[in-house]
Amino acid sequence: MSSLTLFALCGSLRQQSINKACLLALQQLCSGYIDIVIDEDIGLLPLFNPDNEQHENKALARMKQQLAAADGLIIASPEYAHGISGVLKNALDWLVSGPEFVDKPVMLINTSARAHHAQAALREVVTTMSGAIIDEACVTVALLSKNPTADDILQMTSVTDTLLLGLAAFSRAIRTDQEITAEHAN
Ligand SMILES: Cc1cc2nc3c(=O)[nH]c(=O)nc-3n(C[C@H](O)[C@H](O)[C@H](O)COP(=O)(O)O)c2cc1C
């Protein structure tokens, strides 16, 4: 069975981003079993303007290509003023009209237990874009006050256990979906 490839979007541009650290830790935790490709382009996207949707943009083209090639999408993003980060919403707006997002299995990682407004809003946006949120894969890990690096997170057993449980549920859901789709195609 080929290994899964997952694409990951981080909604923070901060150098010391906890959300980015969490994605990097997860990438290391599952290395050899699941490939997690972490996006590097989100900060390079221009502000969304529907007038420019047909214009060539390298960062957007790469993001779309990586999303299309992935079996699933992981999103880890902070809450700002009880909302989704502008950086993430901008990227999602660029992806709204393309086919890459439709029916893509989605895992949400919330690194702050109190950030429920943004998670609820993100669920609404992803669902509206026809992404398939896998509920049992969505996890919250309380990292906010700890300001950890990826290496710090790798030492936090309760956090790594939660992340891996979510990832296992995510990969099971993706595999099942792929098997059902393949069976219907035969
Ligand atoms: C401008 C601003 C607004 C914020 N608003 C909220 C908020 O409404 N709710 C919350 O839980 N955290 C809020 N935070 C805290 C961030 O979510 C937190 O610092 C988070 O770690 C940022 O993510 P990052 O570490 O990946 O950059 C806010 C932070 C900033 C800078």
Outline the fold blueprint:
Elements (H helix, E strand, L loop, with lengths): L3 E7 L7 H12 L4 E5 L19 H12 L2 E5 L2 E2 L2 E2 L1 H10 L9 E6 L5 H13 L3 E2 L5 E2 L9 H5 L2 H29 L1
Parallel strand pairs: 1-2, 1-3, 3-6, 6-7, 6-8
Antiparallel strand pairs: 4-5
In short, what is this structure?
This protein has six helices and eight strands; from the N terminus they run E-H-E-H-E-E-E-H-E-H-E-E-H-H. The protein is an alpha/beta fold and 186 residues long.
Explain what you see:
- The protein has helices spanning 18-29, 58-69, 86-95, 116-128, 150-154, 157-185, and strands at 4-10, 34-38, 72-76, 79-80, 83-84, 105-110, 132-133, 139-140.
- The chain has 186 residues and is of the alpha/beta class.
- Strands 1, 2, 3, 6, 7 and 8 form a six-stranded parallel beta sheet that branches. Strands 4-5 form a two-stranded antiparallel sheet.
- The chain has one domain (4-185): Flavodoxin domain (Rossmann fold).
- Flavin mononucleotide binds next to helix 1 and strand 4.
CATH class: Alpha Beta
The computed structural class is alpha/beta
The figure for the number of domains is 1
Approximately how much beta-strand content do the residues carry?
A: 15-25%
For the largest beta-sheet, the strand count, sense and barrel status come to: 6 strands, parallel
CATH superfamily: Flavodoxin domain
Uncertain segments: none
Helix content: 40-55%
CATH topology term: Rossmann fold
Count of DSSP helices? 6
Write a concise keyword list for the protein shown above.
single chain; about 190 residues; alpha/beta; Rossmann fold; 6-stranded parallel beta sheet; about 15% strand; binds flavin mononucleotide; flavoprotein
